[in-house]
Amino acid sequence: MGRMRRNVALLLFDDVEVLDFAGPFEVFAVADELRGHGLFDVFTVGLAAGVVRARNGLRAVADHALADCPRADVLVVPGGAGTRVLLENPVMIDWIRERTAAAEVTLSVCTGALLLARAGLLDGLRVTTHHEVLGLLSRIAPNALVDPGARFHDQGRTVTSAGISAGIDASLHLVGRLAGAQVARDTAAYMEYRPGA
């Protein structure tokens, strides 16, 4: 008896770092494709549905607004310069807190960890983020153990990854955890990606 496909919600916002969301999108979507579209339903969500301007001007489209986003089994919170604005947006922070409570696992990429910290979700956890904001993460989440010694930290229902490309490693790890190591290996091979390289 196979289980139903897991919903993977990727958060988008203005000035989101492109690879922070595109890397995990590719990993989960390729894993799903390689297994006959039986694993993951990957979609995007933003403050509003429609176009966002990602870092350096790339236009991306949020499939859903926060208010009408389907259930997320896996929530991916990317980073980028736009996180600084969202730190002061209570609607976004409350939404992340609520959706994380209902999700099987939440993955932050890069400075997305700052949003999880602002939502009070990192207390007591070993976490990481982009090397340039490790100090800021420590200030926002003083009860977390900020450890830059690994590309990602899996703390069960919360996974945090270091900067940008590390989100690919963390996503492959999650695919392995949720769908099996062979699926993760096949996905990395298809992508011609060597984790941690």
Task: Write up what this structure looks like.
With 197 residues, this protein is an alpha/beta fold. It has one domain: Rossmann fold (3-Layer(aba) Sandwich), CATH 3.40.50.880. It has 7 helices and 11 strands. It has helices at residues 18-34, 83-86, 90-102, 112-118, 134-140, 166-179, 181-191; strands at residues 6-11, 40-46, 50-53, 59-62, 64-65, 74-77, 105-109, 126-127, 145-146, 152-154, 158-161. Strands 5-2-1-6-7-11-10 form a 7-stranded mixed beta sheet, sandwiched between helices. Strands 3-4 form a two-stranded antiparallel sheet. A two-stranded parallel sheet has the order 8-9. Strand 10 (152-154) and strand 11 (158-161) form a beta hairpin. The longest helix is centred in the first third of the chain and has 17 residues, at 18-34. The model has no long low-confidence stretch (mean pLDDT 96).
List keywords for this structure.
197 residues, alpha/beta, Rossmann fold, seven-stranded mixed beta sheet, two-stranded antiparallel sheet, 11 strands, globular
